[in-house]
Design goal:
The complex is a heterotrimer of chains A (305), B (342) and C (345).
Chain A lengths: L11 E6 L3 H12 L3 E7 L6 H8 L3 E3 L4 H5 L6 E4 L3 H13 L3 E4 L22 E3 L3 H16 L3 E11 L5 H5 L1 H16 L3 E9 L7 E9 L4 H18 L3 E10 L2 E8 L11 H24 L8
Parallel strand pairs in A: 1-2, 1-4, 2-3, 4-5, 5-6, 7-8
Antiparallel strand pairs in A: 7-9, 9-11, 10-11
Helix pairs in contact in A: 1-2, 1-9, 5-7, 5-8, 5-9
Chain B lengths: L7 H4 L7 E5 L4 H17 L4 E6 L3 H6 L9 E5 L14 E4 L6 H6 L1 H19 L7 E5 L31 H19 L4 E6 L2 E2 L10 H11 L3 E4 L5 E2 L2 E2 H14 L5 E4 L5 E2 H12 L5 E4 L15 H7 L7 H19 L1
Parallel strand pairs in B: 1-2, 1-4, 2-3, 4-5, 5-6, 6-11, 7-10, 8-13
Antiparallel strand pairs in B: 9-12
Chain C lengths: L10 E5 H8 L6 H14 L3 E4 L19 H9 L6 E6 L6 H10 L4 E7 L7 H9 L3 E7 L6 H14 L3 E5 L7 H14 L4 E4 L7 H10 L4 E3 L14 H10 L8 H14 L9 H9 L6 H11 L3 H11 L7 H18 L1
Parallel strand pairs in C: 1-2, 1-8, 2-3, 3-4, 4-5, 5-6, 6-7, 7-8
Helix pairs in contact in C: 2-3, 2-10, 6-7, 7-8, 9-10, 11-13, 12-14, 13-14
Classes of the chains: A alpha/beta (305), B alpha/beta (342), C alpha/beta (345).
Amino acid sequence: MRSPAKKVGTRLRAVILGSGNIGTDLMMKILRSEMMECVALVGRNLSSPGLTKAASLGITISTDGIGFIEKNPDCCDIVFDATSAISHLEHAPILERLGKFVIDLTPAKVGPFVVPAVDAAGPLSGNCNMVTCGGQASVPIAYALGQAHDDIEYIEVVSSIASRSAGQATRRNLDEYIHTTESAVKLYSGARFAKAILNLNPAVPCINMQTTIFAKIAKPNMEKFAECLQTVVRQVQQYVPGYEILVGPKIDNDRVVTMLRVIGRGDYLPAYAGNLDIINCAAIAAAERFARQTLQISPSFRVVQ
Amino acid sequence: MRSLGLRGAVALEPLRHGTLVITGGSGFVGAWLSTLCAYLNDKHNFGIELVLTARRKARLDDSAPHLAGRRDIRFVPADIRQFIDVPAAASWIIHATGSPDNRAHVSNPMETMDVISAGTYRVLRTAEQCLNFRMLVNLSSAAIYGSQPPELDALPEDFIGRIDPATMPSAYAEAKRYGEALCASARSQSRTPVIIARPFTFIGPFQALDAPWAINNFLHAALKQQPLKIQGDGNTRRSFLYGSDAAFLLLRMLVSGTNGSIFNVGHPNAIALNELAALVLRKSGLPLEIKTNTAGGRAATAHLVPDMTRASQAFEFKPAFSVADSVERTLAWHRARAKIAA
Amino acid sequence: MTADSGAKFILMSDPSLRDGNHAVGHSLTPDQIAAYCRIAENAGIPIVEVGHGNGIGASSLQLGLAAAPDGALLKAARDNLKRSLLGVHVIPGFATIDRDLKPAMDAGVDVFRIASHCTEADITDRFLNYSRKQGKTTYGVLMMSHMATPEILLEEARKMEASGAEALVIMDSSGTYLPNDVRLRIGKLVENLSIPVGFHGHNNLSMAVANSIAAVEVGATILDASARGFGAGAGNTQLEALVAVLHKLGYQTGIDLYGVLDLGDYAEENLMKVVPTVSSTSIVSGMAGVFSGFLKPVRRIAAEYKIDPRDIFFDLGKRGVVAGQEDLILESAEKLAKAKLAKVS
């Protein structure tokens, strides 16, 4: 095991649990961050591409699972969990006991949802759940709809993602994806009903992630919605540069339609995997907010020399 | 512990005070091996030290709670591909990693192959580190034979199967074949004593009923009081070895088998699936219906029966449990579990 | 034809009340369903499929809202089917086990047809397992099967078989196959699977009955067909015609010929807005390999943007769209309209 490349400055230290595509892409993003450094990538298989990549970058790797943090409780301030819902349910109480700030990218829903563009004000602590990839894309729109309207009857979120960007876990957990996205859309918009649909598109070359948001509203206020939408889209674009409104907002067949596309940054994942990129970008944005908060609130906070 | 027979404990005497490592320790075979060793320790003061390794301990705690908290069993959570913490004192290894669930094989074939190939490599390398290593039994699979030719009633160990390597459904079988060749290589290059065991179909407590195999479906349907459904024309013949019989045979092989030998592990007496369904029905004591789902396909009958001559000659092996006994005991176990859960 | 096909039984499954919904904007009411089921029951139709065109849980703005909730549609059918089995179509991604599958089981559905795009079979694993373990008759269905090679189709079918499918049906969702295409695929599946194999045809190129016969000739034992071809665009295989042809060829279906003819007449008079015909756009959709269910929204949007619907179809075909991606019609139309405008100016 090699020790991490130490950086000078005031950074919080992060450990990533899970060395699949998500975890490895997170690592690449943290390497770019001004506020964090990646102290370890924890996986299962030493010869997996993720751990091999980490080792080649001089980042500590481990296959001890949560045991790595239990054995080195002072190794980090932030833990990104990119394993699975079942595993996160095991990890969460341990991380809470150790007082770690946790960004949960699984559908375990231990902590409250966090969508950085619309949860801009409040301080973050404890365990943050990153909803789903479709949720990170659609919740900002749902939020703007809610800002512009008092009474929304129904919102529907249809996401199409490239089949190759959906790994085994996503495929097995479509139901969890749907239920979680639906509850987040309802929560942030105040809509009475919500429905989420996910299509895996096998087209070659791979399609970019596209999400269409339909809303049924008795008296749509398009002017106000367009204004709220513009504000929130700008906020998302601060951490997801490839987030873009493609069609709308417009009224089609008595429904308010907004269609958006997410092009990934292509850090570790290919650019078509905008669905994975957006949840990772959101996770980094949430962690950086926590870092900013922590470093300002308590200047004496132990930081890496 | 009928499987031990009268002289069973004597036959396993070499295990006394030994350290036995079981990889894939949380699975069906691991649970039965541990149960048998625990019995030998409790009733015959064998003093075996068991080291079980698997990714998740929770699975074993759930299926075999009687093993939890025992001092003679140590659980090492590890991915087999990274298994390095083998005690230097270990003399015995039974390598039983790898899910036989064909759903996992077809949905995640690359991982399936990697766990088998890299895992077997890791275990063979690990055995080299042991100070006084006696034997490694590698659980291969009956799948290495490919499909059983219709003209053969049973598959003998010297039958060389035929598998098309360049197709995805061959992933599991090909990895297991690679595993066997790796064992032969380790025996030659590192002088590691290895025996290859080829498991056929097993039955018994500790087996989850969710994998879609005929026996599981029948048992599950009987427990749920649903109609029993037979896939194909019902003439497919299988044989079912009870878990404790399988564990006993594997331990016999471990302590008395000749280095380099290969053994089928299964029950010699085959039963057609429609007879099996009728048997499960009889043992369930319920008036359920049996439905046949006749396939249009030509592959409607796919026998899988081991020729057990070699093991019976080498170890005087004779299963203690008939398929009727096994069905009865397995149903009783699942019913008792359901009661506890309720 | 194989020698023993003379007295062979072909299991017919009738998706009129499901696929037909695509043709009428998912407007079939519980009353219509009840009446149709009574006649289907009398005709001895073995399986009657009911629901939104994209299956249970699919009523949505994206795909069209159903006239009534799944529960009401299924109840209307259940109350009127005795010998005939009640089936549903289930696509993971639209439906979920808790929200849709469990209530359908409670409503008394007998046959669960768990479907995915032809290359995405692993998303059906949990659904197949669940349905099978509940003791329900469980099929795996591969949609848009022309978009995969026969080899990949077989691999995906094997996944479904491993997950517990008790039969495997492939759909020619855009009606693009010719009989030899069907023989090649069905033959391969029959040879390599140990479960019954079925075929679901669409009539875009007027080949649905011929394709279905090609399928049984190489060993398929399940066929889907709709009364009067009730289905989107050019419609599905026409049930009455297929039953007549099968009987003439010496196959058994257990269906009463007059009964099924009455069923076709009823469907034409009471369920349809127009009888499915092989229109120019259907032919284009068949050639482009685009799901026939896209026909209605494509026509509507093409009219709105004042562009040729045929152009949209070929554009969608090039993009490899799959069912459930109806939102891309809008994008395609915008793109084509802009291109047209650019040409004009």
